[in-house]
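I am writing to request your help with a piece of structural work I have in hand. Thank you for your consideration; the sequence and its tokens are set out here:
=====
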Amino acid sequence: MPFPNTKSFAAGLFLSLPVVAAVALPAFAADAPRQAVITVIGEGRATMAPDMAVLTFSVVKQEKTAREALDNNNKAMSDVLAALKKAGIAERDLQTSGFSVQPQYRYPQGTDGQQLPPELIGYQVSNALTVRVRDLSKLGGIIDQSVTLGVNQGGDIQFTNDKPDSAVEEARKNAVADAISRAKTLASAAGVKLGTVIEINENGPRPQPMPVMRAAMMKSEADSAVPIQGGESSYNIQVNVTFAIAQ
């Protein structure tokens, strides 16, 4: 079979290529004008009365042997847990948050003032408990009874809300409204017209309540209970908002 003419074959192959292959794509101009925008930070805040307290405390016992310290600690903590459950605290609201057994030393000095080797004098056992108290009227009585039964360290209290969604939503709305107000002020000062929102970003993780004290004193079940003030929980939100500048 005879081969085709080489020049004619090459010319035919070139002509059969798609026309678009020879068309150059338009390039974007490197100096294209940048969209004019205004970016502001808006802050929003909302408060609500707390409906829950998170209480953290410890039972600490020290004895000559680790066994004695542990036994004494176990008894005291068992009494505290039983009292908390009797007061209406559910199992799900009781959580051991720390436990340790530590040797205790004395560091004597010799008659010449030189430091002598440490002497083991006993062991310390610490058992930390975190308690969520959902009935705040019982909080003072719970603290008082816990100390009576053996709690002797800690006492940190954080007031919060079981379902703060409504306050967080209000804080978000306030933050966006604040951003719009700031952007309008900036646009007016610059002599331009504010356009539509281009981007909104909320800063940080889910907001946590910040305590704001108020004068009202909670009523406890017993007059001798620890006086507690619940105050209000303040939820703070921060947003970054970018607006276009209308042409």
In short: The first helix runs from residue 6 to 15. Residues 52-160 form a domain with the Alpha-Beta Plaits fold (CATH 3.30.70.2970). The helical segments are 6-15, 66-86, 139-149, 165-190. The radius of gyration is 35 Å.
